[in-house]
């Protein structure tokens, strides 16, 4: 029996939008300090799944337990308390262009944590910029940063409230392959340093291989394959999983 602590437990989760059935019986266990990679074609419901996880959408049926709580039953106060323990940066979620890096990072901190001194705020921001390797950018504007640097600052901003769970929705989208490797390393370093549990949504199998302890492939509304990279990909039987692999590693 697996005795590791489960931080997320999903059971028989369904979600439709009108006639469109998106999630059709999703089951998932996410273990503490695990990095789980979620893969799947565009529109299969990956983002919907993590939106249900943080209570931005509600499932039609089934359960979504996060850190011991059924998300759909929480009142606003408890939902906000849970969200503070989850660092989520949505796909394309950007920095505020009119604010410096420091102000971008200060924003979630002063809004959610009361009674911090100016010095404590600065120390926390400096620690996290240091963790993502960009201490020198503190007074810069987002427009002065590269795409990869912006992603790093986004990760630092997400970490500022000390989340237990990190949700990365396509962290390497739009980056060159070398910068992707840097971001993947960062995801691994974040886990080491802050002992976070993570879900990484990606289309990039190199990212998946580098960051994931386990892969979960969303197909026809369910996780159809789950296991280590080696278990899921090289010998995939399902044509659609196989072609995902072939396109990433052979045809590209
Ligand atoms: N709030 C919503 N209202 C109606 N339909 C929605 C809503 N959110 C998502 N959908 C639909 O649900 C399906 C799954 O969307 P989702 O964003 O989860 O896809 P995804 O797997 O994250 O895709 P991608 O890889 O392109 O990001 C899509 O067809 C989308 O149009
Ligand atoms: Mg998505």
Automatic annotation (TrEMBL):
GO terms for molecular function: ATP binding. InterPro entries: AAA+_ATPase (IPR003593), ABC_transporter-like_ATP-bd (IPR003439), ABC_transporter-like_CS (IPR017871), P-loop_NTPase (IPR027417). It comes from the Bacteria. The keyword Nucleotide-binding applies. It holds the Pfam family ABC_tran. The keyword Oxidoreductase does not apply. Residues 8-245 form the ABC transporter domain. SUPFAM superfamilies: P-loop containing nucleoside triphosphate hydrolases. Keywords: ATP-binding, Nucleotide-binding, Transport. PANTHER family: PROTEIN TRIGALACTOSYLDIACYLGLYCEROL 3, CHLOROPLASTIC (PTHR43023:SF3). This is ABC transporter ATP-binding protein.
């Amino acid at each position: 029996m697996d005795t590791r602590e489960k931080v997320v437990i999903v059971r028989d989760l369904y979600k439709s939008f009108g006639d469109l059935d998106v999630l059709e019986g999703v089951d998932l266990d996410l273990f503490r300090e695990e990095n789980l990679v979620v893969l799947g074609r565009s529109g299969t419901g990956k983002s919907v799944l993590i939106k249900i996880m943080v209570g931005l959408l509600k499932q039609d049926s089934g359960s979504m337990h996060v850190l011991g709580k059924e998300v759909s039953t929480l009142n606003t106060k408890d939902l906000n308390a849970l969200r503070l323990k989850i660092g989520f940066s949505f796909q394309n979620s950007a920095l505020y262009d009119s604010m410096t890096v420091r102000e971008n990072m200060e924003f979630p901190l002063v809004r959610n944590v009361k009674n911090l001194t100016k010095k404590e705020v600065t120390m926390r921001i400096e620690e996290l910029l240091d963790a993502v390797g960009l201490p020198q950018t503190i007074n810069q504007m987002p427009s002065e940063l590269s795409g990869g640097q912006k992603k790093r600052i986004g990760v630092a901003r997400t970490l500022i409230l000390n989340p237990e769970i990190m949700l990365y929705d396509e962290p390497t989208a739009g980056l060159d392959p070398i910068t992707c490797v840097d971001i993947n390393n960062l995801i691994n370093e974040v886990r080491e340093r802050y002992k976070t549990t993570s879900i990484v949504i990606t289309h990039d199998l190199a990212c998946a291989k580098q960051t994931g302890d386990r892969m979960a492939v969303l197909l026809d509304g369910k996780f159809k394959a789950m296991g280590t990279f080696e278990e899921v990909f090289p010998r995939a039987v399902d044509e659609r999983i196989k072609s995902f692999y072939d396109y990433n590693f052979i045809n590209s």
